[in-house]
């Protein structure tokens, strides 16, 4: 059974989803959100400072669930990427909510942070100077995030496995 806090979060996210079908994210007020969610403003502010924080905190919680792969061998990258794609697909409702709110940068920042850790592990075997390595990791992590955002924006036509194969091929070249 969900806790009161989890239930409040679900009510707020559901209300935000409904409101985003009617108006822009920036036009939604806390009063309106709490009214549609059926929770008090005091309850909202107990958990969040503003509506953006509602999205940010929930995204960070989801991303914290994403498995990390600290000691991957090169042969395991494709499997790790497939796991990542399946993870994002499992959270598609929330990711689509973020995209409807036009908060792609929030999603990009969070995905990039996680992917940097994976890319950093892989990059230890690459012949780059430290400065060049930083750019290599940034390039691939941001590219990965952009592909995920485009995949969701285009309706996830490809399977997570197809996306993983595409990403693996491009990350390893």
Structure report:
With 173 residues, this protein is mainly α. The protein folds into 2 domains: 4-49, Homeodomain-like (Arc Repressor Mutant, subunit A), CATH 1.10.10.60; 57-171, Tetracycline Repressor, domain 2 (Orthogonal Bundle). It is 73% helix and 0% strand. It has helices at 4-20, 30-37, 41-47, 51-65, 77-90, 92-100, 104-123, 130-153, 160-171. Helix 7 packs across helix 8 (130-153). It is elongated and about 55 Å long. It comes from Lentilactobacillus kosonis. Keywords: DNA-binding.
Task: Give a quick rundown of the structure.
It comes from Lentilactobacillus kosonis. This protein has 173 residues and is mainly alpha-helical.
The CATH architecture term of the largest domain is Orthogonal Bundle
Termini gap = 47 Å
Q: Which range does the strand content fall in? A: under 5%
CATH topology of the largest domain: Tetracycline Repressor, domain 2
Q: What is the β-strand count?
A: 0
On the 0 to 100 scale, the average pLDDT is 87
Secondary structure: helix percent: over 70%
The largest sheet, given as strand count, sense and whether it forms a barrel, is: none
The CATH homologous superfamily of the largest domain:
Tetracycline Repressor, domain 2
- Give the SSE string: HHHHHHHHH
Structural class: mainly alpha
Number of helices: 9
Q: Which helices and strands, and how do they pair?
A:
Layout: H1 4-20, H2 30-37, H3 41-47, H4 51-65, H5 77-90, H6 92-100, H7 104-123, H8 130-153, H9 160-171
Helix pairs in contact: 1-2, 4-7, 5-9, 7-8
